[in-house]
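Lab channel / #folding
Pinned by the channel admin:
"Please post every new chain as: sequence first, then the structure tokens as a reply. Keep commentary short and put observations after the output so the thread stays searchable."

First post following the new format, from NK:
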Amino acid sequence: MSFLSLHRDGPVLTITMSQPETRNALTGNTAVQEFVQVCDDIRADASVKVVILTAEGSVFSSGGNVKDMQRFFDPDLTPDLIREEYRQGIQRLPKALYNLDVPVICAVNGAAIGAGLDLTCMCDIRIASENASFAESFVRVGIVPGDGGAWLLPRVVGMSKAAEMSFTGDALTAQEALACGLVSRVVPHDRLLEEARALALRIAANPGAVLRMTKRLLREGQQATLESLLELSAGYQAIAHKTPDHREAVTAFVEKRKPVFR
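Reply from TO:
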């Protein structure tokens, strides 16, 4: 049974985690492999402008499968082997999703726990159902964030809040997540996908190539110097000025009409 189900609506691709019976756990199954594959497919398909990521059931994702962790008790499974398993397993997920050059909206329908919370931080925009909750709970089961959470979470909520969440493992309600900037809005549960799709369509109304370049600039801007980002921006802008969509946008503005992008 596939972990992900896909639904295409014009330029918007909705990805749904579809194993509610496991609380959409991200390990002990094919989740990582499927995420990596779909990200590769999206990267190669210029007609996809926006992605929505959500889940079936009452839980967004419980993160790592705790029951599956019992196999690490095996004395033959050495620390070196475990480290390599992380490198070839769950750590492929942030590399694929965080670096995806299409805007990603995360529609969080329920609890996002451990790697499930970190999964939301790999996305660009987070919208929470009023039923959602968030916990960086690795410490509660005696492990560290092995999926990049210590890098992702501080970039979303700041170092102080990330440290508080990581050291206590305490959960945040949807409203608390809104207050610290973890999510940008909280909506009634039955309107979650409606709100996510409405936002996705507003984004998708813009030129796809420029959306991808804009996201790349935002990502690079979190690490690059101002000088380096300005150089990259100049290069991207030179490309953008020569696109048919830019010509159409300027022409439509001058002619006082709505642009029609390719």
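NK: The chain has two domains: 4-204, 208-255.
TO: also worth noting, The first strand starts at residue 4 and ends at 9.
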